[in-house]
């Protein structure tokens, strides 16, 4: 046993982690929602993808600059700590381990099961989906905890696999749509269905936040990344630029594969219909298997961050039982106890997601909010003080890096907060109540070692 993580990942794994965590489930899961939200207005949907991608790139660039200067245990927690002090760093870490990591990971567990059920023709909210969700949760936790190097290789391989359906649909779908006129028709048809949102563009941008989110989790392995001050910024910069481009091209290709009305009516099977339409039933099914694999790759990347969450706090002697949670297994070089806590909280959030979003009558009444989007918007709000302090403290940076990019990042974060209020209404209030309770609990446990 020890308390220090070894340098075991290179640039390729870091880039694969950025691309692999972000690319995958969200682009398939949210594409249909964005199309429905905008009433089938394809140009507005593409604009939403572009705005969401720009917000991600701007924020990622600022953190890439921070990554060239600071390298400790967990990127985003480190950046919060050096700019605002250990207390804010702790609260950022506490939010990540208790809400952000497990909530997003739990959604990915179900999304992976969802597309498995679509592939097999089963109910996406029935007992089959729940059973598969539980299996995926345990399996991906075991992979990361027992063999972190294998998990890293799985991340690289699934990143390559998941790009296959995206690139093929982007290229072949676009050509297919131009030849038969579907793409032009979808672009020019305008709104073809009722729009329920008061501001469909804002709602669509918030939906893209889930598809684009995850890049910040790549900073959780900076203590295990060789030459992190060089490799992490490269991974963040090139990874996010590539992601935004491939998403917009995929969404365009999807519009060339089938009419917008068919995608909207198809719901969770919309993507499968599009692949079958372009590549035949057999080819479409094979590519849809790749879609399922891509979801599992995203889940794996999220679990890589989830298993290390409590360790990042315990390594600072903060939070509950730091002596227990910062222990590293000598054989696997993994914080095993931290991994167990991460898996447990993911299971709790999976139970919540099922009861709040997948049953006919939500179990939690007014507290039944969308845990796939609101935690993401919250972390954007928590970035704002960091960006402000970069402008105040980082005097050695150029004007571009010290003032312009952090200012644009603040504007992007504020935009996301306003958009979330339009998209989720009073759900934002009930989520903030849960957030406040969790953060107060974190305050009580912050110095538990000292109290003992």
Q: Can you give a write-up of this model?
A:
76% of the residues lie in helices and 0% in strands. Helix 6 (86-120) crosses helix 16 and helix 6 (86-120) packs antiparallel against helix 17. The longest helix is centred in the middle third of the chain and has 37 residues, at 270-306. It is an all-alpha fold. It has a single domain (11-354), classed as Amino acid/polyamine transporter I (Up-down Bundle), CATH 1.20.1740. It is built from 20 helices and no strands.
Task: Give structural attributes.
452 residues, mainly alpha, 20 helices, globular
Number of domains: 1
Range of strand content: under 5%
Distance between the termini: 23 Å
> Could you state the CATH homologous superfamily?
Amino acid/polyamine transporter I
Give a brief rundown of this model.
By secondary structure, the protein is mostly helical.
Please give the structural blueprint:
Layout (H helix, E strand, L loop, with lengths): L10 H12 L2 H5 L1 H7 L4 H26 L7 H10 L1 H35 L6 H20 L1 H33 L1 H7 L11 H13 L15 H30 L2 H7 L3 H37 L2 H6 L7 H4 L10 H22 L16 H20 L5 H26 L2 H19 L2 H4 L1
Helix pairs in contact: 1-8, 1-11, 1-13, 3-10, 4-10, 4-11, 4-18, 5-6, 5-17, 6-7, 6-13, 6-16, 6-17, 6-19, 7-8, 7-13, 7-16, 8-11, 8-13, 9-11, 10-18, 12-13, 17-18
